[in-house]
Design brief:
Distance between the termini: 78 Å
Oligomer: single chain
Helix content: 40-55%
Order of helices and strands: EEEHHHHHHHHHEEEHHHHHH
Radius of gyration: 28 Å
Number of domains: 3
CATH superfamily of the largest domain: Intergrase catalytic core
Strand content: 5-15%
Number of strands: 6
């Protein structure tokens, strides 16, 4: 293999400081085939110093020129991700690549992937069916897959595996407001209380007819969801000793999916927090504690909602909403409801952020919804305007 380096000036391209852009290129010739690896450097002096560094590495044979296929790069990318995010998040990322990206581009060298190839991949993704369900992928899912693929190239660019990120020239899937309405919704306080009252009536009837207290666990589960805004896994993980005076401590999050059924780690560092609880929620918890003390050898480290399963929570959610003649909202939307209620009550965004365990108030604001009272007030102002 014959290898050399060169500097190429990029006409008309400068950075914000006014420094000229140059390409420092590694040229390769192997068995009659030519290859190259480029790096964009700003400033002539910087470009010459980088070329000199490469030349010195060539002389002592220490220059390593990485050339990966997409599949090979993915292994390095996921290994890097495991150092920074939770295992189940990495597994979900890997699953998306295997299902929607690798079948098309697995054996393609990353430095040969062009914007045109990405555009063709997006057209193909547009016709991909959902896993386990009928129908095509939603726009939200496709946008998420796009962003995951883009992250891979951002990683490759950061570590000089590619000279440019082709995603810069390829925009994400457009949101289609006509066919892909966001599923995010929320309950106002009156709706949330009606939902909870329906859950309570169901638990009372179940206890009376079958002498079974198990349905109270679901009533209390939803009371915690409405009253604390905690994540689903955090509610699963609540123990009796997490209640300290008028607060409840978030210390763990239990994931019930597949191999993670015993996972107890919180989502982020910010997720470890204390949430004030209302007097009514405290009364619900105290009554439930007395119930649980009657039916087993009670310990303070027992789960508050024992043996509550994700699938049954969703079934109960549907049943209670339908019985109360309420719209069905996602489990995560109870968290949106909690945040929206606090914003409506004019609680400071920084405080809400602390209660829900977000890292930034910008993230918390995504959970804010327009309250019907606010909308009605705005409509009345418009009606009374002079023009």
């Amino acid at each position: 293999m014959k290898t050399s380096t060169s500097i190429i000036k990029i006409k008309g391209k400068k950075n914000k400081q006014g420094l000229q852009a140059y390409i420092v290129r590694i040229n390769q010739k192997n068995n009659g085939k030519y290859g190259k690896k480029d790096k964009v450097v700003y400033g002539k002096e910087e470009a010459e110093n980088y070329k000199l560094k490469l030349d010195n590495e060539l002389k002592d044979n220490s220059l390593i020129i990485d050339r990966f296929t997409l599949g090979q790069l993915l292994d390095k990318f996921l290994e890097s991700k495991r150092l920074r995010i939770k295992e189940r998040s990495v597994d979900r990322l890997e699953s998306d690549f295997k299902l929607y990206i690798l079948p098309t581009l697995c054996d393609t060298y990353i430095n040969e992937i062009t914007p045109v190839m990405l555009d063709d991949w997006m057209k193909e993704l547009n016709t991909k069916p959902m896993q386990k369900r009928k129908g095509l992928l939603s726009t939200t899912t496709k946008r998420n897959i796009y962003n995951e693929f883009k992250q891979l190239f951002e990683y490759a660019y950061a570590f000089d595996y590619v000279s440019a990120n082709p995603f810069v020239k390829v925009k994400n899937f457009r949101r289609n407001d006509n066919t892909d309405i966001s599923r995010t919704d929320f309950y106002v306080q009156e709706e949330a209380l009606l939902f909870l009252e329906t859950a309570k009536t169901h638990a009372e009837r179940y206890e009376k007819e079958f002498s079974d207290l198990s349905e109270w666990n679901y009533y209390v589960w939803f009371a915690l969801a409405i009253g604390t805004g905690a994540r689903k896994g955090e509610i699963h993980g609540f123990q009796w000793d997490d209640i300290i005076n008028d607060t409840i401590c978030v210390r763990r999050g239990v994931c019930q999916k597949k191999k993670y059924i015993n996972s107890n780690s919180v989502k982020t560092v910010n997720a470890i927090r204390q949430i004030p609880i209302s007097k009514s929620l405290k009364n619900i918890l105290d009554a439930h504690k007395k119930r649980m003390q009657k039916i087993r050898d009670f310990k303070e480290n027992f789960r508050i909602c024992n043996n509550v399963k994700d699938t049954t929570v969703e079934r109960r959610r549907n049943m209670f909403a339908d019985t109360a003649n309420l719209k069905r909202i996602r489990i995560h939307d109870f968290r949106h409801s909690f945040v929206s209620h606090l914003y409506f009550a004019n609680v400071d965004g920084d405080i809400i952020k602390e209660y829900v365990g977000h890292s930034t108030t910008k993230m918390t604001e995504h959970y804010k919804h327009i309250h019907p009272v606010q909308k009605a007030k705005a409509e009345q102002i418009i009606v009374n305007m002079l023009l």
